[in-house]
Amino acid sequence: MKCDISKRCGSCQYINMDYHQQLVKKQEECQKLFPHLNVHSVEGMDHPYEYRNKVIVAFNQKYEYGLYEESSHKIVPTQKCLLHDEETHKILSKIQSLFRKYRMSIYDEKKNRGFMKHVLIRRAVSTNQTLVVLVATDGMFKGSKNFCQELVKACPTVKSIVLNVNKRQTSVVLSDNEKVLYGKGFIVDELCGLTFKISARSFYQINHEQCVKLYAKVKELLNSQKDEIILDTYCGIGTIGMSVADKCQEVIGVELNKDAYKDALNNAKMNHIDNVRFINDDATEFMIQMANKHQSVDSIIMDPPRAGSTKEFIHSVKVLQPKKVVYVSCDPTTQARDLKWFKEIGYQASDVYLYDMFPHTGHVECVVLLTKVHNG
Ligand SMILES: C[S@@+](CC[C@H](N)C(=O)[O-])C[C@H]1O[C@@H](n2cnc3c(N)ncnc32)[C@H](O)[C@@H]1O
């Protein structure tokens, strides 16, 4: 497939490269980062398009919408992005026509004036539900009732519309201040045979098909026993922990984002899983506290954001002495750094498993199993 905007957009660095070549390149690059480990070939997709279940676009004063040009805040008008599904395009195009009809005031970054800043679309692909988040500079959206009615009528997959009020001039799109304009403020998706509630600010893996394969690998590597206690750190809305809960005694999930934590609590209830509990805390702080209390766990799952984990987190692992740590990462560079710290405390990996969560970009998802080889 050919992308018309690849030269200007810059989001998909590999879009003009043959897909198989992309997978080979990702594996080679990871092998350089993990020279002493067995880096497996990348698990790719049969149809590596339309996989992104989340998109954030900005509008310009002509009501054109799109992503920003590489390293700038100039919008690249995008009618079709190869990574988004048809429904996302249909909804964005309807929003565009409604913005025109209602003469929506579009935010002008240079003048720091105007109302509508961004539109975020999140799709639950298994249930075909859509959440629309309108990011604006003010909580007063005149005519919002008619706007929502028209949007939902034209696009019935839209189950909720949220207004996120972000007055700040920063590159962070969402603020903590939100108001539900239509529906319940969240959508529900099915993943690995479970049901998950996803709200606007919670993390959710963007590639559903690849996420199923990734979680299956985590479960396989954990290979837990019925009497084991598993810590799921950086747990988001509880997806990984809940998908392994049937094979162990207890899962304790730790998540910093309050909305994701609340979603996780609801998700456990919704799925009638009673051997999982969630803590709303910084993962490192939680680990330090556990280590200070000399508590023990059998396995730890960690899936930190791009920045990776911390030295303090890893030093607490030394005290907790789990048999296994399964480390999931969307940035192999920080993961490679963290594996060096793990080595210092006596935990070693041998294999790196790669999942192409982000086809046509330079990114890849990595999973490693660390086991204790000596006492550090
Ligand atoms: C890559 S996501 C993984 C989420 C989840 N494991 C999944 O597969 O959906 C990383 C998560 O870590 C959370 N997070 C970021 N910094 C954190 C911290 N210091 N302590 C705990 N959680 C944190 C984010 O809010 C996000 O939900």
Automatic annotation (TrEMBL):
Sorted UniProt keywords: Methyltransferase, S-adenosyl-L-methionine, Transferase
Active site: C330
GO biological process, one term: rRNA base methylation
Keyword Nucleotide-binding belongs to the record: no
GO molecular function, one term: rRNA (uridine-C5-)-methyltransferase activity
UniProt: S-adenosyl-L-methionine binding residues: Q205, Y234, E255, D303
SUPFAM superfamilies given in the database record: S-adenosyl-L-methionine-dependent methyltransferases
Entries under InterPro entries matching the protein: MeTrfase_TrmA_AS, SAM-dependent_MTases_sf, U5_MeTrfase_fam
Family annotation (Pfam families): tRNA_U5-meth_tr (PF05958)
UniProt record similarity statement: Belongs to the class I-like SAM-binding methyltransferase superfamily. RNA M5U methyltransferase family.
Record protein name field: 23S rRNA (Uracil1939-C5)-methyltransferase
Organism placement in taxonomy: Bacteria, Bacillati, Bacillota, Erysipelotrichia, Erysipelotrichales
